[in-house]
Specification:
Elements lengths: L1 E4 L9 E4 L7 H7 L10 H8 L4 H11 L2 H4 L5 H19 L6 H14 L6 E6 L2 E6 L1 H28 L11 H24 L11 H11 L6 H23 L10 H15 L2 H4 L23 H30 L5 H15 L11 H9 L5 H18 L8 H11 L1 H4 L4 H8 L1 H17 L1 H21 L3 E6 L6 E3 L12 E6 L8 H12 L3 H21 L2 E6 L3 E6 H10 L5 H30 L2 E5 L8 H16 L3 E5 L3 H9 L11 E2 L2 H11 L13
Parallel strand pairs: 7-10, 10-11, 11-12
Antiparallel strand pairs: 1-2, 3-4, 5-6, 5-7, 8-9
Keywords: Membrane, Transmembrane, Transmembrane helix
Membrane topology: Multi-pass membrane protein
InterPro entries: SLC26A/SulP_dom, SLC26A/SulP_fam, STAS_dom, STAS_dom_sf
Length: 705
């Protein structure tokens, strides 16, 4: 093999190569190349390798479990600290009135109410001669806290186990269109949930199927009860925040730091609310009393485990799925990667450890995440500061934010979610580029809006998997042609230079071959090559049958005549006599004409069969896109090879990778087929077919490119 460069100084230098070598098939290649001996590891060897310890491995494990150790020492204080501080303070303030994601809260609440219903805590009281039944709310709430603690402990433990078992691979099924459609639907849910705070109306919280529609119906049914001061304050905050964000975006290169619009809104609206007594005089909803202090840690009541384990598993999966979806959104936007298993461990540890401090299940919140990102948060330092703000408020200064209007918080959340609605621009783009990805986006959005985020996410994942199955069942296929003076084979439908060799078809199928598409593979092969062995066989049988009839018509015919006895005449003499005699009737004319037409048709069909069979002598199957094959696929290929061989068309296979060959070996494919029918490249296979049929094509088997 030679590497050559263009010697013409006026032309740009192009690398060229020329290869002169024999044509290889897999049998010949295997005899000249030696595969490495790789003895399978025993269970003991695998365990030894798994638990082998070294300083480098310990360091790698430590950094993978605690990635903060890898980036915190090199944290760029001047570039990131101020942005993280502003973001952390803004997010912490927004976190005060509502601390968890609605879907997980509702799922947890459903379990808690089921295990500790009001009916369990009615007690009888006697006041003199009167007896009454009252609800012991203190005992009920204490029991519900215990249920929530155990439920959170189990959820965290399940997530930790799944993380250790590397269950985070499910994140690969969250494609970008799915995640963007899902998060857009989540933004719709959050914005609609904030409308009642913006308008100052009282409605119940809905969840599950059609909750968005019910929530909108509830808000608009009470639209006449809108609190005007609440609405004016909320709209003012929205306009102010939108202007600030627009200024930050336009002048981000000139501004030394972003303008902290959210903090300004919180401080000013709290001051206005307190100074003007908006809550008392104008009935504007405020955050209200914030409980202070932390409860002492305690052990959960694990006797409740049997009743909660199934629900805990469901919440563990849903919580992780929602968290990883948001993580992938920001990862795509800011160009970094997300480790699904690490996310599982993080969620699990957070839930498991915090459960001993009387908490319940947590996951990522879209609204707070968007606030943190849009206010300039760069690292986990922003999240840490947001947590410290909440801790500080709970422990010491909760009273400062008691006058904070709910409508101001709703404005902060809604304005920060405007960026999510820009994802609707994906629809025209996907319409032009990929209809299947558009269907995934729409399915994720519609299902998540109508069914709720938990069921919608599951439906979206299932739909995404179905599109993968559809693509492998209905892949692109076609005929490839040779580009002159190269070893390249391209689609004859797309490239004018790609020419088919006489008598040779190169068939390309853009998928693996397995039970779901093996029939499709065979039908596409016959359709694209124009060779249908079954049809050719049936035509040949009809030809043979017709030939036998023709021979019988040339034998002696015995005619019985009761009056003149028996006479023996040959059909040829009969035909001569008939030619000399005029036709006796119109019916006889029709029969004669029909016989002539039938004979001509049979003759033309026979000529067509012979010419067609001689025109296509070889078919090359391009397996360069075949990643795997199962037993059904292997049986289909064996059937194809035999059927085509029966009509004198040889089938060879090119571009098959080693793993597929190993699969065929395990499937005992080569007990009936030869390895010599496999070729490492398309050009090897084509040159082999040319040599086997020298009367049609060139016998030159050297590759010169």
């Amino acid at each position: 093999m030679e590497d050559l460069e263009s010697t013409d100084p006026t032309q740009p230098t192009d690398l060229l190569y020329r290869v002169i070598r024999p044509v290889y098939d897999e049998e010949k290649l295997g005899s000249q190349l030696h595969r490495k001996d790789r003895a399978p590891l025993t269970v003991r060897q695998k365990l030894t390798e798994l638990f082998q310890c070294s300083s480098d491995r310990a360091r790698s494990v430590l950094f993978s479990v605690l990635p903060i150790l890898s980036w915190l020492p090199s944290y760029p204080v001047r570039e990131f600290l101020f942005s993280d501080v502003v973001s952390g303070l803004s997010t912490g303030v927004v976190q005060l009135p509502q601390g968890t994601f609605a879907v997980i809260s509702l799922m947890t609440g459903g379990v808690v109410v089921r295990e500790a219903p009001d009916s369990m805590f009615y007690i009888q009281t006697v006041n003199g001669t009167n007896m009454s039944v009252v609800l012991d709310e203190v005992a009920r709430d204490a029991r519900r806290v215990q249920v929530a603690m155990v439920f959170t402990t189990l959820t965290g433990a399940i997530q930790i186990v799944l993380g250790l078992l590397r269950f985070g691979f499910v994140a690969i099924y969250l494609s970008e269109p799915l995640v963007r459609g899902f998060t857009t639907a989540a933004a719709v849910h959050v914005v609609i949930s904030q409308l009642k705070y913006l308008l100052g109306v009282k409605t119940r919280r809905y969840s599950g199927l059609l909750s968005v529609i019910y929530s909108l119906q509830a808000v608009f049914s009470r639209i006449t009860e809108t609190n005007v001061p609440t609405l004016l304050l909320g709209l003012s905050c929205c306009v102010f925040l939108y202007v600030i964000k627009d200024l930050n975006e336009r002048f981000k290169k000139r501004l030394p730091i972003p303008i902290p619009g959210e903090i300004i809104v919180v401080i000013v609206s709290t001051g206005v609310s307190y100074g003007m007594a908006l809550s008392n005089d104008y009935h504007v909803d405020v955050v209200g009393e914030i409980p202070t202090g932390l409860l002492a840690p305690a052990l959960p009541d694990f006797s409740l485990t049997p009743n909660l384990i199934t629900d805990a598993f469901a919440v563990a999966i849903v919580g992780y799925s929602m968290g990883i979806s948001l993580a992938k959104i920001f990862a795509l936007k800011h160009k970094y990667s997300v480790d699904g298993n690490q996310e599982l461990l993080a969620h699990g540890l957070c839930n498991f450890i915090s459960s001993f401090f009387h908490t319940f299940v947590v996951t990522c919140s879209m609204s707070r995440s968007m606030v943190q990102e849009s206010t300039g948060g760069k690292t986990q330092i922003a999240g840490l500061l947001a947590s410290l703000v909440v801790l500080l408020v709970v422990v010491a200064i909760g009273f400062v934010f008691e006058s904070l209007p709910q409508t101001a918080l709703a404005a902060i959340i809604m304005v920060n979610l405007l960026g999510m609605f820009k994802q609707f621009r994906d629809i025209p783009h996907l319409w032009r580029t990929s209809k299947i990805e558009l269907s995934i986006w729409l399915a994720a959005f519609v299902s998540s809006v109508l069914l709720g985020l938990d069921l919608g996410l599951l439906v979206s994942i299932a739909f995404g998997i179905l599109t993968v199955i559809y693509r492998t069942q209905n892949p692109h296929s076609g005929i490839l042609g040779h580009v002159p003076d190269t070893a390249l084979y391209l689609s004859v439908d797309e490239y004018e230079e790609a020419a088919q060799s006489e008598g040779l078809k190169v068939f390309h199928f853009n998928s693996s071959i397995y039970f779901a598409n093996s029939d499709r593979y065979v039908s596409s092969l016959k359709e694209q090559t124009g060779v249908d062995p079954e049809h050719i066989q049936s035509l040949r049988k009809a030809q043979k049958k017709q030939s036998r009839k023709s021979k019988e018509n040339h034998t002696l015919v015995v005619c019985a005549d009761t009056q003149r006895g028996v006479s023996h005449e040959s059909l040829e003499n009969n035909h001569s006599a008939e030619k000399q005699q005029p036709p006796q009737s119109g019916q006889e004319n029709g029969q004669a004409a029909g016989g002539a037409v039938g004979a001509d048709a049979d003759s033309e069909e026979a000529v067509f069969i012979e010419s067609f069979c001689s025109a296509v002598h070889s078919i090359v199957l391009d397996w360069s896109c075949t990643g795997f094959i199962d037993s059904m696929g292997a049986k289909a290929i064996k059937r194809v090879v035999k059927e085509f061989a029966a009509v004198d068309v040889q089938v060879v296979i090119a571009g098959c990778n080693g793993s597929v060959l190993d699969e065929l070996e395990r499937l005992q494919f080569f007990t009936e087929m030869k390895r010599s029918m496999f070729f490492p490249t398309l050009h090897d296979a084509v040159l082999h077919c040319q040599r086997v049929n020298p009367h049609v094509l060139s016998t030159d088997v050297e590759t010169r490119v």
